[in-house]
Amino acid sequence: MSQVYDRVALIGLGLIASSMFWAIKRAGLANEVTGYARSKATRETARRIGLCDRVCETAQEAVEGADLVVLCIPVGVMGAVAEEIAPALKPGATVTDVGSVKGHVIQAVSPHVPDGVHFVPAHPLAGTEHSGPESGFAELFDNRWCLLVPVADSDPDAIARLRALWEGMGSYVDEMDAEHHDLVLAVTSHAPHLIAYTMVGVADDLRRVTDSEVIKYSAAGFRDFTRIAASDPTMWRDVFLSNKEATLEILGRFTEELFALQRAIRTGDGEHLFDYFTRTRAIRRGIIDAGQDTDAPDFGRGKANT
Ligand code: NAP
User: Of residues 302 and 201, which shows the higher confidence score?
Assistant: First the structure.
């Protein structure tokens, strides 16, 4: 794979940024990668483990001269950070982000993108429940999708280059508009996370089952929920606050279906339950056939599994 950008700046040095750095280095996609994170502790960790060619003391310093600036920070701070770096952006540079919600990020960031700088929002559909600078690994994006969500005036060349970067990092790349992205993700990621958070919260409240029993006898169903429910609280708070409408829409449907299943259990309607579970099993089959998970008995629990 050949170089796509001369200089890339990663703002935020957590799971996604650190995985991007190792994936960029693996394929030689950039000449130099600079980085910045808010806390001194994270910047020092990054320097210690060799994360980024240069770790800077300010976000402005990190983006100076960069051809690509990637906002790898929680969705709720994208606007403020975009405003902070705006004066230091190089004319002709591209700003992108990796936020899990797109409509809100576009609204928050767009007003701060200077004339002559391109903005191409993106979202890699890959992650784990771990966070921070030491959680990343080069293979995170391999065979995962990255969705590009161009805005009305996104430059075609800037889009093509960003696509080449994500493909170079191992991803499949697709494009869609922000509203559709936020609905798709509400179904495939945001609502499931909320349900997992709820289920683990409920188990925690059941006093007849002691905490130690919940942990000791944790069978596959609950154990899988706990993995998802261990995801970063800041990131997920911001996701729900910023993808409010689509998430509430899907949760409304979820509640209706849950009531129908509850009634089937109460009335002993085994046929309803059987038909329902047959339909859901086919969806699982489709995900495995599409290569997005494995059939392994451990539920495909690998490193890249969110
Ligand atoms: P993370 O591991 O928690 O890292 C977040 C980073 O952002 C940290 O380095 C943090 O710095 C930095 N940060 C926070 N506020 C900042 C600010 N105001 N200025 C500068 N840096 C700031 O998070 P992540 O999992 O990489 O997620 C980053 C983004 O990717 C989020 O928008 C998320 O929605 C999206 N995303 C996440 C996943 C996933 O599964 N995790 C998947 C796809 C997309 P400190 O360490 O100094 O606090």
Answer: 201
Query: How far away, in angstroms, is 69 Cα from ligand 1 center?
Result: 14
Which amino acid residue places its CA nearest to atom 17 of ligand 1?
Answer: 38
> Does 121 or 299 have the greater pLDDT score?
121
- Give the tens place of pLDDT for each residue, 122-165: 999 999 989 999 999 999 999 999 999 999 888 999 999 999 99
**Residue 41, domain extent:** 5-176
Write the CA distances from 242 to 8, 11, 108, 126, 271, integer angstroms. Answer: 27, 20, 11, 19, 39
Distance CA(300)–CA(29), nearest Å, equals 30
Question: Which of 120, 141, 176 lies at the terminal end of a domain, its last residue?
Answer: 176
Partners of residue 25 on adjacent β-strands: none
Q: What percent of the chain has pLDDT over 90?
A: 79
Question: Cα(294) to centroid of ligand 1, in Å?
Answer: 28
Residues 195, 119, single domain; the answer is no
Ligand 1 atom closest to Cα of residue 238 = 34
Query: What is the distance in A from the centroid of ligand 1 to the CA of 114?
Result: 24
Asked if residue 187 belongs to a domain, the reply is: yes
- pTM given for the model: 0.91
Find the 271 Cα to ligand 1 centroid distance in Å: 45
Q: How confident is the model at residue 14 (pLDDT cuts 50, 70, 90)?
A: very high
Residue 253: CB atoms within 10 A of its CB come to: 11
Ligand 1 in contact with 74 (CB < 6 A)?
yes
For the Cβ of 56 lying below 6 angstroms from any atom of ligand 1, the answer is no
Alpha helices in 169-190 (DSSP H): 178-185
Upper half-sphere CA count for residue 53 (Cβ side, 13 Å): 14
The reply to whether ligand 1 has any atom less than 6 angstroms from the CB of 140 is no
Write out pLDDT tens, residues 66-109.
999 999 999 999 999 999 999 999 999 999 999 999 999 999 99
- CATH assignment at residue 163: 3.40.50.720
